[in-house]
Amino acid sequence: MDSTIGLILIGIAIFFARIVDVSLGTVRIISIVQGRTWIAFFVGFFEIIIWITVISTVVHFIKDRPVLGIFYALGFATGSLVGIKIEKRIAFGHIILRVISRKNYKKMTEVLRNAGYAVTTFQGEGLHGPVVELCIVCRRRDQRDILNVILDIEPDAFYMAEQAGLVSKIYRPVQQPATGWRALLKKK
Fold first, then answer.
1. What is the spatial distance between Cα 119 and Cα 103, in angstroms, rounded to a whole number?
2. Residues 108, 151, 83, 163: is their CA dihedral positive or negative?
């Protein structure tokens, strides 16, 4: 009975350690793609320490306890999902948001510019007549707020987002003054 509980506890530890190490790996790969070398360096360091610890445990016990391989595989698969969720929440990088509007582009442009976003407009021709494309380069974490504004003004607006590789200058919305620990860091 005690050996079964011990085996389950080891399996659970392997499962959670794999979640952490694979999640870190996902964030590391995305950091590499976006050119964030120092983040990738430090995340990779901790990722490999966890991986070595876990793999040495699994290799040591797998012959006698093959169920640990199942915990290992489940942790890997779950870690992939968790890593993607973490990366979406962190939202590194910039995007190019293109919005095609047939009717309310002036209001969209005005509201977004007043909120601090840079908006460039282009005249075009769509299937059903003239359209205006709004081009907005923004941080990925601002995408949801911008889309909420756009869809509130024109619910049937067409939009698409592209990953922006290199951005020379980004306009950010005016931020509130720093408070709490951030204010202490700014004073130094």
1. 16
2. negative
pLDDT tens digit sequence for 49-64 = 988 988 887 787 777 8
Q: What is the pTM of this model?
A: 0.62
- Give the strands of the sheet with 158-164, arranged side by side: 120-126, 129-139, 94-101, 158-164
Is the residue at 175 inside a domain? no
**103 & 149 share domain:** yes
Residue 152 corresponds to which tokens in the numbers above?
A: 């509130």
The encoded tokens of residue 61 equal 């016990």
Same-domain status, 83 and 146: no
Q: What is the DSSP string of 98-151?
A: EEEESS-HHHHHHHHHHTT---EEEEEEETTEEEEEEEEEEEGGGHHHHHHHHH
DSSP β-bridge partners for residue 98: 135, 160
| Together in a domain, 83 and 102 | no
pLDDT in tens, 101-138: 988 899 999 999 998 888 999 999 988 889 999 999 88
CATH number for 144: 3.30.70.120
Residue 182: enclosing H or E segment and its boundaries?
helix 180-187
Structural domain boundaries enclosing 137: 94-164
